[in-house]
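Aim 2 progress update. The chain analyzed this quarter is reproduced below.
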Amino acid sequence: MSVLLLFATFILVGIFYYYVVTPLNYWKSRGVEQGNPIWLFGHYWKNFIGWKNGAETFQEIYKQNPDLRYTGFYRFSSPTFVVKDPKLIKKMIVEDFDTFLKHPQFIPTQADPLWANHLFNLTGSKWRCIRTILNPCFTSNQINDLLPQMIRCADNLTSHLSRKNQEVVTLEIGDTFSRYVSDVIATIVFGVTVNSFTNPNNKFYELSNKISDTNSFFKTFGLKLVWFVPAIKNFVKMQVFPDDAAAYFRKIVDDNIKSKKEKDTMPPNMLHIFTEAMKNGQTRENIVDNKAESNSIDEIALSNEDLMAQAVSFFITGLDPVASSISFTVYELAVNPEVQKRLRREIFATLKSCEGKLTYEALLDMKYLDMVVLESFRKWPPYTIIARDCTKPYTINPVLPGEKVVRIEEGIEIKLPVYAIQHDPKYFPEPERFEPDRFSEENKKNIHPCTYFPFGLGPRTCIGAMLSLVEIKVMLFHLLHRFEIVPVEKTAVPLVFYKNTILNLKPVGGTWLGFKRYDRRREST
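Predicted structure tokens:
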């Protein structure tokens, strides 16, 4: 009996060593510094148990051995390669883009086809095809055509605040700006006129909020489980787009296509722009010049489902990130009143120059507004890390003393710690200070492009970045034109964030601010 017990113990120890201990030596055996991962949990254990959020976790990793260009990391037992050096980031993500084209997939295609087929998740020939077709949809001319609808949505919000008979209107601004962004998406993407302030329970906002909801325990837990243990993704039948929401938006897409065929007098929206672009762009010459890909390109058939996926993806890539960015910027204006005053002066000067009617050209000419928004994205990036998959073996040659040749195997995940780099005092002195002048004409030329990348890098930079910036600027313009933003009793200074998030930052208890009706006569005194 004792022999059998000893043998069983030996077997169990061997299994434990092989499946638990050995994987955590992956980087060490390749000469890559990896810190001290914990059995079973790797480096993510503090995030998993709620001690640190994703931004704090990667900032901690980033600060260890600050002179290293890269470091090893483990998501549970899965090896991940963290790139810290801006020059190496440029080499890998920009110059050698084809090797790191793919975003990691955490939800299988069959579980949610809409999620799988939108641009962010596509790779290879189909990604190139759809990206090339959609690029002209986001030109300055197209955004200019959509501007009046964004202005209308911003005016709906400020008019709603003005109707409140209060000296200072106190709001949790996360929900407020989510409604604004949802209305913008409804209007400029789907051609649906919605006012979530006069009709707070409208179906469009209800379903869009359901898609982007990160408060659901089961949804959050499922996403974290798949994030930490990618091997189980095929067994967890998660959906980003619930069936009822998918059916609702699919009908809107079908109705839009039908209405476009019947009449061309409707206000422009992204669905119509997408439809025309995809109809006009389905020739191999317009898609790719690489002859090696010609056969696979010829086989790509773009359907209404592809169109649907691109439209619905605005909820994931546009709703929460844009609403959060507006919230963070407005918060910084409240706690930095001198910045707010300077920006308001520019707003009134712009209104005077364009005779009270905001134009796209006038918005682009607002240099300080641009500086404020860029600094907000620096301090509060929408996503605190960016991840890519290595699609073929890749070699990193030694540059610094003590480095060895590092071979990245196919399938290894690459992490870029956006938040940590954009808070590195080596690149941005006093990184916790909100200082828009970092992005003045004379200063921004000194910023290394691979130390500031809130919208990503290389050919996979966010296709809707310019549209998002305009959406944010329109809201700030209308808000500061009519209100002074002030801290209130419930305003947290500094902000405190939930510890269970991975990719973004979410303030505990929301973000509370006051909106005080602004008296223009004060500008002349």
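The first strand starts at residue 70 and ends at 75. The chain has one domain: 2-524. These observations will guide the mutagenesis experiments scheduled for the next reporting period.
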